[in-house]
UniProtKB/TrEMBL annotation:
One Pfam entry name: ABC_tran
MF annotations from Gene Ontology: ATP binding; ATP hydrolysis activity
InterPro entries with a match to the protein in the record: AAA+_ATPase (IPR003593), ABC_transporter-like_ATP-bd (IPR003439), ABC_transporter-like_CS (IPR017871), ABC_transporter_ATP-bind (IPR050166), P-loop_NTPase (IPR027417)
Keywords: ATP-binding, Nucleotide-binding, Transport
Residue span(s) of domain ABC transporter: 4-227
Organism: Actinophytocola algeriensis
Keyword ATP-binding: yes
Domain of life: Bacteria
Protein name: NitT/TauT family transport system ATP-binding protein
Length: 227
């Protein structure tokens, strides 16, 4: 059961230099093929500039691929978590979880409130429901960011270096928290990180990209018991 499949995907950025300069061409994705099973936790590692963000952007539809196919098995609802939690400081934690609801009113207000409550309990943040982001630690704020991404029950959770702004200890703790969430929810996760240990610890498979942008060097099956 496939959640998403990329077949021979290419993304070329062409940047026009000012006045006399020639156009600069970057192949940010070069013949990328990857199939992710439903419920699988896949991480993507590689040095800065190797095309990790571009891969997520292509999946989100934030940028158009130059060639190739992207196939979302059942549906394509996606949740996105960025390096910064991007919470609205003037809204409480609960109100931050309800942002999408307040815009699209997809659920009844009651259902949405119940979902937010369940989410806070899953995240271990019940006591902070009515607090403001500024009163929370960085790790807690990022947990709210993850909760917000899960509020509309996405088929795929995309995470771009979600713990990159946290200190090392919080980062390790957040990795464990994410695993707990994943084990309850079995969401398909695509997790971008610079950290090879983190990728090995958390995921079923590690996609290693090469410094030369856009290419997959290898895909490693992780066959370790999870902590
Ligand atoms: P990563 O997320 O691994 O750091 P990116 O996907 O951001 O890598 O970038 C891959 C390559 O594409 C880099 O060489 C980067 O400079 C280039 N790039 C990314 N976005 C753009 C853009 N909008 N225009 C031109 N080049 C870009
Ligand atoms: P990351 O934190 O993933 O490495 P970057 O700092 O490389 O992200 O890129 C930040 C933003 O700038 C992205 O939206 C990316 O698409 C854009 N970008 C990156 N490289 C270039 C480039 N060479 N030309 C234009 N835009 C770029």
């Amino acid at each position: 059961d496939t959640a998403v499949e990329l077949r021979h995907v290419y993304k070329r950025y062409t940047t026009r230099r000012s006045k006399r300069g020639a156009a600069r061409v970057v192949d940010a994705l070069h013949d990328v093929s990857l199939s992710v099973a439903r419920g699988e936790f896949v991480s993507i590692v590689g040095p800065s500039g190797c095309g990790k963000s571009t891969l997520l952007k292509v999946l989100l539809g934030l940028t158009k691929r130059t060639a190739g196919e992207v196939d979302f098995g059942g549906g394509s609802r996606m949740g996105m978590v960025f390096q910064q939690p991007l919470l609205l400081p003037w809204r409480t934690v609960t109100k931050n979880l309800l942002i999408a609801q307040d815009i699209n009113h997809r659920l009844s207000d009651r259902e949405a409130r119940e979902r937010a409550e369940a989410m806070l309990s899953m995240l271990g943040l019940e006591e902070f429901a009515d607090r403001y982001p500024g009163e929370l630690s960085g790790g807690m704020q990022q947990r709210v960011g993850i909760g917000r991404a899960l509020m509309h029950d996405p088929e795929i959770l995309l995470m771009d270096e979600p713990f990159g702004a946290l200190d090392a200890m919080t980062r390790d703790q957040m990795g464990m928290d994410l695993l707990n969430i994943w084990e309850r929810d079995r969401k398909t996760v695509l997790f971008v990180t610079h950290s090879i240990p983190e990728s090995v610890l958390l995921s079923d498979r590690v996609v290693v990209m090469t410094p030369r942008p856009g290419r997959i060097a290898e895909v490693i099956d992780v066959d370790l018991p999870r902590p």
